[in-house]
Amino acid sequence: MRSGAFALVLALALASCVTPVERKCHLSGLWRNEQDSLMEISAVRDDGDFQGKYLTRVTLAGVCARVSPLQGAQQQPGEGGWPTFAFTVRWDKFSNATTAFAGQCFVDTGGKETLTTMWLLREAVGSLEEDWKATRVGRNVFTRKRTPKGKILPIWSPSCEDASSPTP
After folding, report:
1. In this predicted model, what pLDDT tens digit does every residue of 132-157 receive, in sequence order?
2. 3-state secondary structure at position 83
3. Number of H helices, E strands in the chain
């Protein structure tokens, strides 16, 4: 019995000395939200700036979505914190709206990375009287999508038959 108790105490002592694997959240890579939209973020620069591409599966007018550019910045976290970030998407060639996202990156104990975001979508309207209906607010949760290295978002973009002008 003594050797079993000693072994348990030794195991607990050694376990407390071992540093857990550091869990960091990296924004770069491919992400998918609950509406099946995809976002690919390039490497985050030392100053926190990043860019990428966004492919929405939800459009204002039901038109064919195209891969759209995004630009953003990450705030470096304090000790023990997770990074916050913000980015904008200019809905390129199919909409007259812009969306601003703000969020935070988390990693759970199993290593699963999650981005929680709130967004404001601003659609162009024809007059000041219509301003009341021009802004929408929402929330998205993104999880990392594991893929081979390289820029792969364009291969998932739907083929749009015509390059028509932006939707009003």
Report:
1. 999 999 999 999 997 665 555 555 55
2. coil
3. 1, 8
Let me know: does 102 contact 89? Beta carbons within 8 Å. no
36: left (phi over 0), alpha (psi -120 to 50) or beta: left
CA distances from 148 to 29, 34, 145, 153 (A): 10, 22, 10, 11
b/e per residue, 49-60, with b = 16+ CB within 10 A? ebebbbbbeeeb
pLDDT digits (tens, 9 = 90+) for 38-84: 999 998 998 999 999 999 888 766 677 788 999 999 987 666 678 89
Number of neighbours of residue 135 by Cβ within 10 angstroms? 12
CA-CA distance, 41 to 50, in Å (whole number)? 7
Of the candidates 121, 70, 68, 118, the residue with the CA atom closest to the CA atom of residue 99: 121
